[in-house]
Amino acid sequence: MLLEIKDLQKKYKDFVAVDNLNLKVEAGEIYGLLGPNGAGKSTTINAICGLTKVDAGEIMIFGKKFKQHEMEIKKDIGVVPQDIAVFDELSAYENVAFFGRLNGLKGAPLKERVKEALDFTGLWDRKKDKPSQYSGGMKRRLNIACAIVHRPKLIIMDEPTVGIDPQSRNHILESVKKLNEQGSTIIYTSHYMEEIEQLCTRITIIDHGKEIATGTIEELKELILNEERVELELSHVEDVLIKAIKDIKGVKTCEVNGNTIIVVSEKNSENISAITGKAAEFKSKIIAIVVEKPTLERVFLTLTGRKLRD
Ligand SMILES: Nc1ncnc2c1ncn2[C@@H]1O[C@H](COP(=O)(O)OP(=O)(O)O)[C@@H](O)[C@H]1O
Ligand SMILES: [Mg+2]
Hints:
Layout: E1 3-12, E2 15-25, E3 30-34, H1 41-48, E4 56-61, E5 64-65, H2 70-74, E6 77-80, H3 92-102, H4 107-120, H5 136-148, E7 154-158, H6 166-181, E8 185-190, H7 193-199, E9 202-207, E10 210-215, H8 217-222, E11 227-234, H9 239-246, E12 251-257, E13 260-266, H10 272-281, E14 286-292, H11 296-304
Parallel strand pairs: 3-8, 3-9, 6-7, 7-8
Antiparallel strand pairs: 1-2, 1-4, 4-5, 9-10, 11-13, 11-14, 12-13
The site of magnesium ion has 5 residues, from helix 1.
């Protein structure tokens, strides 16, 4: 196990921000921490890299207790914090070199690694510019360059794609995959389930500081496969039709939203033809029909009763 967290707890006065959280990350993974704003992702990340004191729990990284081996462990971690942390008065090159030196690099190897990190993030051509001359996405990439200059075994990225342009976003997502292929283990936090779904080998969903579920994307989707959802757009919707649909065996709920109805049935009820049959019987024309495949968004909604994004 590359990282193991047991019963982590963090309070701000009486407020419990992280509530007995457990995490196990194996070497080679891209591990996702998924949760809405305020779920406790950053607090967890900050605890893992020693930026915040925890109230209880144990953190083991690279098989060692974090508390006892903090300095040694930190050398092999690269952190991309949620809030961009670069020096505005230094050029991009000088910024990356600063973080390289901080991690013990010097001389020719330092130069090599700074070039490597700036090449990797697509900033080499703009190395002489200061961060103030950069777009938000470029600053974010510079932040990543600073975090990876020492080739860390574990890279932790806290919502690295928030508030940036789509091009930088794609660049960052590709970089995450590449860094992982080159051997780094990644912990990636986000409230965008599409990103997590696209990138991560395993995921922990957190809400209000608590673990809601852990598993691969497939495993998490299994959790909600006891339901089928069909969405129908109709020419018109009458109460008698809704009543008739609700009376179909296996139908759990039938929600009406204008001329659209959303029917949730038990797993394997094969109710689609029964539902469309009722629509025909009550002379409602079907304009569109969508059978929803399970998504992480739906997993989150089912497990917490809340939407991932408001
Ligand atoms: N320094 C702090 N003082 C008080 N409360 C905080 C502090 N930092 C975070 N919190 C609270 O802890 C909760 C978790 O925050 P955070 O870890 O930043 O969530 P996330 O990163 O998932 O959005 C939030 O309710 C936040 O308001
Ligand atoms: Mg955060």
